[in-house]
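Lab notebook, bench 4. The sequencing result for the construct came back, and we need a structural model before the next group meeting so we can plan mutations. Quick request posted to the team channel:

Model the 3D structure of this chain.
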Amino acid sequence: MSVSNVIAIDGPAASGKSTIARLLAKRLSIPYLSTGSMYRALTWHAMNSGIDTENPNEDALEKLLSKTSLEYIQAPDGQFDIVVNGVLPGAMLRSPEIAAHVSRIAALPLVRNWLLDRQRKLAEMGLIVMEGRDIGTVIFPAARHKFFLTASPLVRAKRRLAQDGETPDGATIATVAAEIAKRDELDMNRPIAPLKQAPDAILVDSSEMDIEEVISLILEKIRANS
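Done. Here's the predicted structure in token form:
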């Protein structure tokens, strides 16, 4: 794998990293790939295959993965979409149902190990922006460009609430904040690849920054380190 090909963006849920990574990739005219979407796609696949994602049976899940293909394909608009066994999950990946169960699937070592080689292989595409929670610590620990994007809990809750389809009807800032806190706890305390800032990653707190300010800062750091 070519670590010089990777711009790694990590951070907790609702930190704005997906939006920033997507727009950064567009600005640089390179692919944007989300490992979070890969875990969401496997969660969607497991739910559709009858697996209890609340208490997943690992033997059943391992059997399912042995018959699963997951790849990115380039859409006509130039974006890259995930395809699972030839099916495009599309907007379903951002549904509240998937968001509520993905942490449990993503915490399983067999799932993370199954995806690891596939994620690393994506660097063969050339210069890419890859976004997730363990890009700079596990997937590409030697990546040249690493960023850890975060924001205050209140800002993150407001951002999640503003995203269409991300929260159930009747959700409030308080309930969304509680859900984000629960997700943080799961992500930071899972036994394999926990969420944490890589020692050499640049911390970007976007609580009081707009999107353009964040992108400009990241571009400035990339150019300085190229």
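The mean pLDDT is 91.
Will bring this to the meeting.
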